[in-house]
Amino acid sequence: MRISELSESTGVSVATIKYYVREGLLSPGRKLAERLADYDDQHVRRLRLLRVLRDVGAVPVGALKALVEATQDRRTTIHDMFGEACDALRVETAVPATPDEHTRELADRIVERAGWDQVRPDAPERDQLAAIIRVILDSGLRTDPEGAATYLPLVDAIAAYEIDQVDDSQDRETMMEQMVLGQVVLGEFLLSLRRLAHEHHSALRFDGRG
Amino acid sequence: MRISELSESTGVSVATIKYYVREGLLSPGRKLAERLADYDDQHVRRLRLLRVLRDVGAVPVGALKALVEATQDRRTTIHDMFGEACDALRVETAVPATPDEHTRELADRIVERAGWDQVRPDAPERDQLAAIIRVILDSGLRTDPEGAATYLPLVDAIAAYEIDQVDDSQDRETMMEQMVLGQVVLGEFLLSLRRLAHEHHSALRFDGRG
DNA sequence: TAGTCTAAGATAGTGACGCTATCCAGAGCC
DNA sequence: GGCTCTGGATAGCGTCACTATCTTAGACTA
Predict the structure, then answer these.
(1) Which residues in chain B touch residue A93, judged by CB atoms under 8 angstroms apart?
(2) Residue ranges per domain, chain A?
């Protein structure tokens, strides 16, 4: 398949495909001649995945690159690959990257209470959680992070369901794809449902009372 | 309070404050003289809120403006204000804004099944949900949107808890602030917890099995 | 009261990001 | 033989969220 066909069958412009190749998001086509290369179904598939992640999840190109690199490491387990993928997808918030002792301790306590004993002690996500807790404490929200125990079984059930959806009869690449898509697309799905639920509960509580 | 003091007590640069005033995110100070204005605690508070929304939620400046405008409309109920706020905060995904009949129907069915009968029939979030369902169907995820009934009670519980946290003994502005912060900051909190839970469940299922 | 400082307001510039457009030289097709 | 298309390189563009500079009037300081 030539680059123009790849472009047509994915809806991504030739210029953008070249850009993605340059950035290492997509491997160059198999070289047939000095000025001719061949692209295959893997390229179509990868390109479709990249577009979904960008269009739905607004994943930055740099994170996509890290994701691709994580996928290509054939030595690691699926779990380690997924761990790297999650690190890549973790949104960088502009809050202090090194949280204070107290909030970090709160974060660790939450993880412990949830029973997530498989989470690495040095997982960057723990600091991320601590940073968010810091903001919750500072910002006049009444929500008590410790009291957020309410969330834990619910979130646990959601995540367990999502991991359960992955089809382990497939190859590594497909499984990674499913996990990453799950992380991003189902994350948006979840947030969308939550906004709808907010509207419903907000109406029940506040409608007509000013 | 002068602009330099406002800057110091919020950590936002004078140039940025001026920019926010220009963009209508922040009201100009009370004019004392041709070249002198006075800023008060409301400005400090507003500015802190804006920074949290941007730093944690990456809310675009345009959305912040819509949010401010929603807050300032004194005629509407809290619920209507919140509805406008949610519309402003809804992330624009680059997926077809006008989904096909089928996915829209799926979306409506989900809302109905969840029992969210207070959601306006013309809520833009319904189309947003439909667009995400379209992507799920197209992208090789095994998750069946209809089968996502699993999610509904969980999401409902989360949203109900969050709306319940709002302190209705406060004034309109404070309540709006709590709802918007809840939407954004607790949304990040939720996603962070979910990522941790993913790591845990991914380890249980895949660790050591390649 | 002279001199310095700071304010508000206007306008222009910056840097990151994600493309997009142009150019080039060679190969393929008709 | 002329047109199209290719991969590769490089430069440009549009948006976003600031940031910096300039001007001038008023405020404070000695």
Answers:
(1) 55-56, 58, 188
(2) 90-155
Residues A210/B175, Cβ–Cβ less than 8 Å: no
pLDDT digits (tens, 9 = 90+) for A66-80: 999 998 888 888 898
* Measured distance CA(A70)–CA(A78) in Å, rounded: 10
Q: What torsion do the CA atoms of B117, B122, B125, B127 make, to the nearest 10 degrees? A: 120
**Which pLDDT tens digit goes with each residue over B165-184?**
999 999 988 999 999 999 99
Could you tell me which chain B residue has the CA closest to the CA of A160? Answer: B201
Q: In chain B, which residues have their Cβ closer than 8 Å to the Cβ of A122? A: none
* CA triple A84-A43-B203, angle to 5 deg: 25
B202:A139 CB<8 A: no
Could you give the dihedral angle defined by the CA atoms of residues A4, A9, A12 and A15, in that order, rounded to the nearest 10 degrees? -10
Residue whose tokens read 């499913």: A178
Contact indicator for B33, B70 with CB cutoff of 8 Å = no
Tokens coding A44? 């179509």
Name the H helices within A90-123: 101-114
